[in-house]
Backbone:
């Protein structure tokens, strides 16, 4: 077989500086480099010489451009901002990037190349058309970059496999990995994140491939030290993030694609789900089961069986004769209701189903190139699909949620939105994936092929849903859960990783999977605790719920053919362990909610790999079974049966064992890990803000505990962030921020609480300060006065003091 022929741009013929952009013309093609910000560059190359016009559904925000200096020297253009320099070789057309101190990264090995691509050249599966659509859909653009030997390659979104993606070939195309769920060998999953973070000691940088077409990365898979970037669509468009730390790369990415939404407080509580709690009596029984057993719960999710024949925005009136009463009963117990909504609208025209008729009349559904309505098989059988690239469709779709909100539904769960379509009714045997044709047109003017917009389908459905909830219930922050998504979906929704299995391997895989999502700007993520497919069992569930208490989104969910998976389903011993784990979640809420605010401001992930907080410690970059929960906590989960102790790599600095309350020694350690006793460590200098155990967040926080862990030599700082947990009023000053600092042990370990800032006033509560010290002090000094109202907790090595939290400045210091 003949080798494919690649075209290349050849030398630069001319260039022009446009203040914030540099444009070069080649013998074939045009390149444009924009200073999106001082630390973000956008590089576009078009073989045709014409750049794609902006798409109204693009996930990329418009940022004020930065100044750009361009000079020609020694056969190269030096294109510079204050934070980043690109060097373009005029002869070859290759780019290299460098930091202000001259450290090079992201170097091209060759200029962009392109060729016509056939369907069989891709990993697209079960396509209904034998060929890619004509035109730009068949033009593939390639770019090769040098991979530094000591660089790890992280991110890439929702993936199976190891945290470091080096030596893998990865494609970007949203799919539903149907029964029996996804596994290690799968490439594409439900979301597409063409985003990578390259990390080596002293330098982290990022690359976001701004392509919604089918695209791919070869991360040293074919050639050891070559990163190949590929996309269909006839244009190469990518952003370079200067870093130089992992935290700054994530900040740059979310500055460009949108900060993560701030969830309501209740969404950080524990959620219980199943396919399906399919009747009013089922739902009430589950709620009663939690309350009778004193197991905290904030939300119950209703899967597809609440609907009338799977018609979205309807209720089965036999199963749920009075859905408003069902939801009111949940609310009376402090429990929220989350209902599933799929994009497939049953093709039930001319009958009693107004949603389908209105969608056809308004022109909101997708059509084939010949003008006929596109239909595909999903749960309601033959179904129509909204065109979410259309602004008018998104508005219409958002409005459909108003009746659900009107009866008290609290949040929406978007599922099957890859979109997932099959080749025959689900009730028949042999069902398999049968995707939407790539030639279907999208957009208000039908301006785009499905080949271009497929990866955005779930993203735009989540956006339409969030905007509808905001419009119809503006006094409350929307909360949307989505299965499919893209870079930027963090603005609109939380997500879970789809249909996993009740396997130890999937418990283990959840750690790098969720950490990778955080590196790609999506902090509010989780997996189905206990596994979706197959039967879970006591030890696996116990281990999963103890780590699940630290997932940003904590939900147990399982398949209709799996055995029950409520916390009490595995016997009294596991029930007790599950209760303790969920209670830990509720104690952590003040800390987690502060982390949610930090994510909302800078994109900072809640659940992250060690490399995020310790980028200089190269030996920790490959560690994927220890996870940082914010900057203060590190967990070391157990992901194998029978294991009751494990090796823990100790990052730099002072560390405490949270359960024992004592400091741990230098270097790696063997940690005891009994069932229900996952190792948890606290970083020296931390001020961990904990609440008391509540049955749901509907109960007020009446006690706030500050667990204080001094470092030997360094001062520790923390800011507790609070608001009403529900509204948007935090944007108008109704927020409370309390700055705290703890002096080093060598400097007396004095805790300073600054006066609370902001207009929000938390309910009355007790403040408990617990200073973890090597030895018992003679006493404690509160605001300059020695107090006798304290005690020493010998097992946890903590001096405890309790007083009323009045929002004023306070100082607590030990004396010897």
Residues:
């Amino acid at each position: 077989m003949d080798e494919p022929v690649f075209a290349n741009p050849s030398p630069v013929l001319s260039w022009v500086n446009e203040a914030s952009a540099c444009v070069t013309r080649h013998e074939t093609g045009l390149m444009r480099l924009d200073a999106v910000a001082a630390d973000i560059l956008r590089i576009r190359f078009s073989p045709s010489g014409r750049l794609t016009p902006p798409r109204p559904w693009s996930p990329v925000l418009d940022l004020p451009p930065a100044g750009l200096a361009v000079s020609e020297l020694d056969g190269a253009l030096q294109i510079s901002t204050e934070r980043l320099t690109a060097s373009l070789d005029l002869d070859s057309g290759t780019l290299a990037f460098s930091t202000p101190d001259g450290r090079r990264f992201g170097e091209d090995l060759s200029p962009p190349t392109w060729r016509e691509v056939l369907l069989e050249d891709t990993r697209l599966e079960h396509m209904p058309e034998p060929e890619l659509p004509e035109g730009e859909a068949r033009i593939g653009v390639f770019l090769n970059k040098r991979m530094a030997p000591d660089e790890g390659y992280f991110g890439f979104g929702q993936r199976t496999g190891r945290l470091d993606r080096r030596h893998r070939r990865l494609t970007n195309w949203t799919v539903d990995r149907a029964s029996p769920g996804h596994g290690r060998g799968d490439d594409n999953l439900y979301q597409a994140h063409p985003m990578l973070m390259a990390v080596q000691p002293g330098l982290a940088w990022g690359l976001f491939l701004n392509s919604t077409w089918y695209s791919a990365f070869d991360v040293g898979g074919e050639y050891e030290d070559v990163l190949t970037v590929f996309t269909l669509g006839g244009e190469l468009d990518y952003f370079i993030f200067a870093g130089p730390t992992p935290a700054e790369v994530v900040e740059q990415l979310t500055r460009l694609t949108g900060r993560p939404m701030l969830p309501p407080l209740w969404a950080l509580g524990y959620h219980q789900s199943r396919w399906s709690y399919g009747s009013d009596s089922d739902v009430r029984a589950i709620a009663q089961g939690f309350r009778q057993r004193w197991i905290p719960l904030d939300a119950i999710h209703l899967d597809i069986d609440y609907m009338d024949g799977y018609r979205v925005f309807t209720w089965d009136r036999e199963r749920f004769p009075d859905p408003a009463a069902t939801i009111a009963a949940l609310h009376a117990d402090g429990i929220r209701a989350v209902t599933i909504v799929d994009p497939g609208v049953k093709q039930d025209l001319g009958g009693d189903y107004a949603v389908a008729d209105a969608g056809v009349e308004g022109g909101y559904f997708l059509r084939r190139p010949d003008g006929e309505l596109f239909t595909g098989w999903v749960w309601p059988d033959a179904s129509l699909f909204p065109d979410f690239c259309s602004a008018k469709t998104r508005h219409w779709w958002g409005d459909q949620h108003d009746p659900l909100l009107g009866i008290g539904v609290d949040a929406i769960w978007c599922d099957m939105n890859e979109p997932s379509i099959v080749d025959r009714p689900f009730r028949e045997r042999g069902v398999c994936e049968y995707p939407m044709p790539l030639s279907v047109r999208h957009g208000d003017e039908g301006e785009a092929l499905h080949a271009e917009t497929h990866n955005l389908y779930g993203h735009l459905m989540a956006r339409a849903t969030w905007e509808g909830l905001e419009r119809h219930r503006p006094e409350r922050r929307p909360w949307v859960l989505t299965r499919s998504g893209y870079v930027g979906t963090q603005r609109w929704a939380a997500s879970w990783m789809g249909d996993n299995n009740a396997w130890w391997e999937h418990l283990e895989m959840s750690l790098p999977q969720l950490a990778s999502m955080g590196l790609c700007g999506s902090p509010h993520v989780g997996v189905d605790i206990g596994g979706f497919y197959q039967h879970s069992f006591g030890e696996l569930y116990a281990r999963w719920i103890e780590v699940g208490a630290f997932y940003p989104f904590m939900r147990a969910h399982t398949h209709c053919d799996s055995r029950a998976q409520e916390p009490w389903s595995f016997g009294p011993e596991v029930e007790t362990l599950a209760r303790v784990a969920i209670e830990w979640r509720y104690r952590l809420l003040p800390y987690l909610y502060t982390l949610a605010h930090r994510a909302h401001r800078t994109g900072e992930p809640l659940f992250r790999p060690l490399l995020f907080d310790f980028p200089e410690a190269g030996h920790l970059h490959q560690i994927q079974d220890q996870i940082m929960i914010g900057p203060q906590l590190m967990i070391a989960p157990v992901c194998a049966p029978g294991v009751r102790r494990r090796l823990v790599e100790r990052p730099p600095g002072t560390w405490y064992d949270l359960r024992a309350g004592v400091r741990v020694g230098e270097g790696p350690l063997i940690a005891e890990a009994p069932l229900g006793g996952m190792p948890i460590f606290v970083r020296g200098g931390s001020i961990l803000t904990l609440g008391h155990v509540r049955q749901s967040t509907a109960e007020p926080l009446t006690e706030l505990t500050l667990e204080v862990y001094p470092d030997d030599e360094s001062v520790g700082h923390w800011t507790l962030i609070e608001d009403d947990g529900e509204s948007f009023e935090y944007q108008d000053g109704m927020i409370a921020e309390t700055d705290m600092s703890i002096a080093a042990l060598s400097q007396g370990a004095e805790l300073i609480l600054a006066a609370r800032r902001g207009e929000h006033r938390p309910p009355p509560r007790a403040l408990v300060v617990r200073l973890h010290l090597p030895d018992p002090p003679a006493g404690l000094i509160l605001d300059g006065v020695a107090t006798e109202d304290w005690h020493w907790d010998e097992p946890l090595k903590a001096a405890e003091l309790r007083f009323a939290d009045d929002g004023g400045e306070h100082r607590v210091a030990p004396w010897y």
Q: What stands out?
A: The longest strand covers residues 30-37. The CA atoms of residues 359 and 669 lie 61 Å apart. Residues 700-815 form a domain with the Immunoglobulin-like fold (CATH 2.60.40.1180). The mean pLDDT is 96.
